[in-house]
């Protein structure tokens, strides 16, 4: 009996060892693939030097953490954008990965993208101006400004726009090995930003752009369904938020808020000012303010261009909401309201 028991334990140990090695090989393969696409080793502390020459002069890099001293950044961090209660059950990335299925692990980090040469991590959530933000992140990753800032070529602008929604165009947090992810989230050189939105307008935007246009469904809800039917269907998923499409999912369950301490929580409602502040702190204002025009009638500024996803939901709230629907949305997405400082009050 002892011999059989010992043999069984050896077999179990061997299987676990093979699984462990296979997982490490897969992670290493993913990392090598990412680095080969970007030519930027993720753990290279001097990667930002490749972007340090602006307009033929050295950019100000006297302190890699000087962004934290920027006045507008300090103001943003003091505002009522409190996600502390989300970290009540704060966990490490490694424990999150080992305790969860791969699908659950990925779901927690949807939207989180890094740009190594700017030491920037930004969470770009669906329905939170993510199309424009991902265009910006592709440009920051790929544009060569070592010889100064020049107006981007039209073909480059078109490429950034088209490829911004392609996952392979970005370095996604959920693809990073635990060791490199830990380096990103603990190194003070990295500025970590999440962009959130008022749940009232986000829910309506999801309905108008995804449901009414027939791009997505939800349960029995389709393009012919009313906004009230859509909200009622959302309520059914309150206890299983990760089973719902990310366009309709609670924001607190994405971005990895339970594992990442974000330095700044920006808001779509104040994104123009917030993004200018972030860009100034990290020396990429040129990429926010100019270079996006494809023709004479196009805006040259990032936030002025159209993406085809705009719904102007913030101006249509009174057309779709009743007080009863507003109460349902608040109760359904209460954690989002509390975490990001959005008021419950809904004035019809």
Automatic annotation (TrEMBL):
For this protein, the record's InterPro entries field holds:
Carb_sulfotrans_8-10, P-loop_NTPase, Sulfotransferase
Q: Recite the UniProt keywords alphabetically.
A: Glycoprotein, Golgi apparatus, Membrane, Signal, Transferase, Transmembrane, Transmembrane helix
Q: Which domain of life is it from?
A: Eukaryota
Protein name as it appears in the record = Carbohydrate sulfotransferase
May I ask which residue range the UniProt record assigns to the signal sequence?
Answer: 1-20
Q: What is its main location?
A: Golgi
Q: Output the GO biological process annotations, alphabetical, semicolon-separated.
A: carbohydrate biosynthetic process
Q: From the Swiss-Prot or TrEMBL record, state where the protein is found.
A: Golgi apparatus membrane
Similarity comment text for this entry:
Belongs to the sulfotransferase 2 family.
Instruction: Write down a Pfam family by its short name.
Output: Sulfotransfer_2
Could you state one GO cellular component term attached to this entry?
Golgi membrane
A GO MF label:
sulfotransferase activity
- Membrane topology classification: Single-pass type II membrane protein
């Amino acid at each position: 009996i002892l011999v059989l028991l010992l043999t069984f334990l050896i077999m179990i140990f061997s299987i676990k060892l093979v699984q462990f090695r296979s997982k490490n090989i897969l992670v290493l393969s993913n990392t090598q693939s990412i680095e080969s696409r970007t030519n930027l080793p993720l753990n290279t502390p001097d990667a930002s030097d490749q972007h340090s020459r602006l307009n033929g002069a050295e950019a100000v890099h006297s302190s890699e953490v000087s962004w934290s001293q920027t006045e507008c950044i300090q103001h943003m961090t003091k505002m009522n954008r409190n996600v502390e209660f989300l970290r009540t059950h704060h966990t490490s990335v490694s424990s999150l990965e080992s305790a969860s299925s791969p699908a659950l692990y990925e779901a927690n980090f949807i939207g989180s993208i890094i740009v190594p040469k700017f030491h920037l991590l930004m969470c770009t959530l669906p329905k939170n101006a993510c199309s424009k933000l991902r265009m910006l992140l592709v440009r920051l990753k790929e544009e060569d400004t070592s010889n100064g800032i020049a107006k981007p070529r039209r073909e480059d602008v078109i490429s950034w726009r088209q490829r911004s929604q392609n996952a392979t165009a970005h370095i996604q947090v959920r693809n990073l090995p635990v060791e490199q992810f830990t380096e990103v989230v603990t190194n003070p050189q990295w500025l970590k930003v999440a962009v959130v939105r008022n749940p009232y307008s986000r829910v309506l935007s999801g309905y108008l752009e995804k449901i009414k246009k027939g791009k997505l469904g939800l349960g029995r809800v389709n393009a012919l369904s009313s906004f009230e039917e859509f909200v009622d269907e959302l309520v059914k998923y309150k206890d299983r938020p990760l089973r719902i499409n990310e366009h309709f999912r609670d924001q607190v369950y994405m971005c990895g808020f339970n594992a990442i301490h974000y330095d700044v929580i920006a808001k779509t409602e104040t994104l123009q000012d917030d993004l200018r502040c972030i860009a100034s702190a990290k020396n990429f204002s040129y990429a926010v303010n100019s270079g996006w025009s494809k023709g004479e009638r196009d805006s040259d500024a990032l936030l002025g261009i159209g993406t085809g996803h705009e719904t102007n939901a913030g101006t249509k709230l009174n057309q779709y909401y009743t007080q009863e629907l507003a109460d349902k949305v608040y109760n359904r997405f209460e954690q989002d309201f509390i975490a990001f400082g959005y008021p419950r009050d809904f004035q019809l």
